[in-house]
Design brief:
- With 132 residues, the protein is α+β, with helices and mostly antiparallel strands.
- The protein has 5 helices and 5 strands.
- The strands form 2 sheets. It has a 3-stranded antiparallel β-sheet with strand order 3-5-4.
- α2 (30-41) crosses α5.
- The protein is elongated and about 70 Å long.
């Protein structure tokens, strides 16, 4: 990303987030990760997805789904029935992203003992430095 002094709106070009970084932020956000991983299994209705993810507000889930839909990762299928039924599923692009995110999640799970050990070493070293 080149830094420029050109002004676009209220931000200089150098301050505007690169498009790929913005998509990365969407995919790796707290709720984006969970939505993508959950939708790998099957399509979900909104309320089912919210229950499956847990602890996400309706507003935040709605925003996350809209963002992922806009990025072309999630497909929203609104059926014209009463009561309204909306199903969410992954697009091919979304499935590819979700598989990458799931691989990172599985790596994290596998490597958690090493991470925990590194944290303990760090915390011990930091505590000793603060005392000494």
């Amino acid at each position: 990303m080149a830094v420029s002094s050109e002004v676009t709106g209220k931000y200089t070009v150098g301050e505007v987030m690169c498009p790929y970084r913005l998509v990365l932020e969407h995919v790796t956000s707290r709720w984006g990760v969970l939505v993508l991983i959950e939708l790998l299994d099957r399509p979900y209705r909104f309320s089912e997805l919210r229950r499956a993810i847990g602890r996400v507000s309706e507003k935040m889930l709605t925003q996350t789904l809209q963002t992922l839909e806009r990025d072309g990762l999630v497909h929203r299928d609104a059926k014209p029935v009463i009561p309204p039924r909306v199903d969410y599923s992954l697009t091919d692009l979304g499935r590819e992203a979700a598989e990458q995110v799931r691989a990172l999640a599985l790596w994290t799970e596998r490597r958690m003992p090493e991470v925990q050990e590194a944290r303990e070493v760090y915390d011990t070293r930091k505590a000793a430095a603060e005392q000494g």
